[in-house]
Amino acid sequence: MKTPVLVLSAHALSMLGFSSYAVSLVSLKELWGLSNTEAGTIASGFFIGYMLAVSMWTAMTDRRDARQVYALGCFASAIASLGFGLSAQGFVSGLLWQMLLGAGVAATYMPGLRILTIIFKGKVQSRGVSFYTAFFGVGAALSLLLSGIALETLGWQWAMGLPALGPLLAWVLMRFAASDANWPQPLSSVDTGTHRSTARLHWQMIFPLNGWRRACQSPAVVGYTFGYGVHCMELFGSRAWTVAFLIFAMSQPGSGHWPFTAAAIAAFVNLISVLSSILGNEFALRLGRQPWIRGVMVTTTLFSVILSLSAGYGMAWFITVICLSLYSMMTMADSATLTAGFVQAAPEEVKGAAMGLYSLLGFGAGAIGPAIFGAVLDLTGGATETTAWVFGYLAIGAGCLIYPFVQRRLHSEQSASDVRLA
User: Has residue 195 got a pLDDT over 50?
Assistant: First the structure.
């Protein structure tokens, strides 16, 4: 059991800079004189960088050793966190450093998952994927906790820069976890013949159109990818604004004395959501993936409205925390199920390219989530208005309400295709 423990620990540490900006958002918004839209756009910068780089890194695992790609991502993430803490001075510089951080995490998240799928096969792989996906939440919680403590005691520069240690430690752990001398050759290494130009190979690694086309011939792959996209929009849009939302809730009369900081509460909520992701995959294996995903997506969006109202009307602090915990658990309850279903549905010969497309579109949707949330806050009265938070949560959850209709249409197409093949 040594190897999976090291892989999961490395995954969590590689995420240590993920939530740093969410912790510092309110402080930097005031310090730099940002609007909610600008503050949300900086948060989106992480996902923009991730989206721009993930296809290249993940498709590269079809042609290069995934461990080498992982190492590059660790060093890029460390440089981004340290650079933000040392040199960020406003909207543009903050956005650029967040984009680099996203590009670095793109080279660790899906390539790390590729490493895991090489280590595990069969039924164990599904559970391994669910734990790996869930540990995204562990990393986010550790990031919130570390950056929150650093912000309170040392200031925002430390809150943003200190997490650079995480990816470096992740790189060390992954070297031990995946040190097998008999590591398999990349599946598509035979396709890199000398008759192809270097420029063409690089283009195909960044945009492996043939692999994407092959993967998208399966309605199941399309469905899981669309589901992951709307899931990411809600998940990352809400997480970027969770600390700011809690600060809003703390300002409401009648909520009482809050015994913990907003960052500590957000870290706790993220941590307990990890169990939801793991258990969600177990429930889905028994109840069926698609019924579970549809039910979770609709329920999550409804919970977001209840959460907003609980804070805005000055209910006791522990009620808001309970509502936030339930909402966060629901947003994670279909995460592992979507990814495990996709991994099984994607064709083996283009799995790396397919995983890149999956992550590209998912985090692409996640990229606009924080910015949309901030823009809606500005358009509906600002971060001091309850109705603005209601509309903000509804805006990032709208895709989840659409998903059941899209999935039903794709299921009909799959059934018709099966009839034709028969």
Answer: no
